[in-house]
Amino acid sequence: MEFLQQNWYWAALAVASGAFLVIETLRQRGDSSSLSPVQATLMINREDATVIDVREQNEFIQGHIPNARHIPLSALDKRTAELEKLKQQPIIVCCASGARSSAAMATLRKLGCEKVFNLRGGIAGWQQAGQPVSRKRK
C-alpha cells in the first residue's frame, strides 16, 4: 500500500493504459468487416480470399500483397464483369491506409458481393506486421 501511495502516478498510468487496451479491443470486435494483417493472411490461406488493391498504378508497382488483383478505385465500376465472378468468395480490399478501401467496400457490396473485408491499416499496416510484399508486375 505504501508503494502505491508513493508511486500513484505509475498505478494511474497502468490503469489508464489497460482501459485503452480494453476499449480498443471491444471497438475492433464490433467491426467484423475490418481485418488485421494476420486475420487477412489466415483468410487468404484458409478460405482462398481474393485481395483487391484499389490504389493507383504507381502505388501498386511500389509494392503490393502477393497475388493481389489491381483494380484502382476509379475503375471499380467499369470492371463489374470481372467482379461478378468473385461474388461468392471472400474479398479483402486494401489501399495505402484504409480510406479508399472503405469506399471500395461499399461499391462491392452494391454489386452484390457479400463477404467483403477491409484490410485494417492498408498496405502500410501489412508491411508493419512483417507480411510479404511483391513488386512483380502481372
Task: Please give a structural write-up.
Keywords: Membrane, Transmembrane, Transmembrane helix. This is Rhodanese-like domain-containing protein. The longest helix has 23 residues. Helix content is 49%, strand content 12%. By secondary structure, the protein is α/β, with parallel strands linked by helices. The protein starts with a helix and ends in a 10-residue tail after the last helix. It has a five-stranded parallel beta sheet with strand order 1-5-4-2-3. It folds into two domains: 30 residues; 97 residues, Oxidized Rhodanese, domain 1. It is elongated. The protein has seven helices and five strands. The mean pLDDT is 87.
Q: What would a concise description of this structure say?
A:
The chain is of the alpha/beta class and 138 residues long. The chain is 49% helix and 12% strand.
Write the SSE topology.
Blueprint: H1 2-6, H2 8-30, E1 34-35, H3 37-47, E2 50-53, H4 57-60, E3 69-70, H5 80-84, E4 91-94, H6 99-110, E5 116-119, H7 122-128
Parallel strand pairs: 1-5, 2-3, 2-4, 4-5
